[in-house]
Amino acid sequence: MLEDFYNEFVDVRRLSTVLESGIATAKKEFITNIADLHCHIQTFDDNITQDIATGFGKDVRMFCAVVDIREGDRVIRYLEDESPLEYRVVGIKKWSNYSDNDHIEVSIRAFIS
Q1: pTM above 0.90?
Q2: 1-35: burial string, b at 16+ Cβ within 10 Å, e else
């Protein structure tokens, strides 16, 4: 099974409206949408590329079960003895009807300044 290769846990955060006393405000913040998502992260390319002026980053692929992840979400990867790495979801491809191997391939990008 594909899940046998899932060797990491990440948190997925989504930009949401801040509530104060149950009332929506104009403020927004990233809140945890999915905690401890079991996945496999694979380096896509060792090169650092540039998307926009001064926008440098490294692309990575994350494989996981079919869950509620959207472009723009943040993936927080916790590594032993290191600070957490934050990635932005830049693409999602759903793989279904492959016997018991339904999953999504998530393109995530670590921005480097």
Answers
A1: no
A2: ebeeebeeebbbbbeeeeeeeeeeeeeeebeebbe
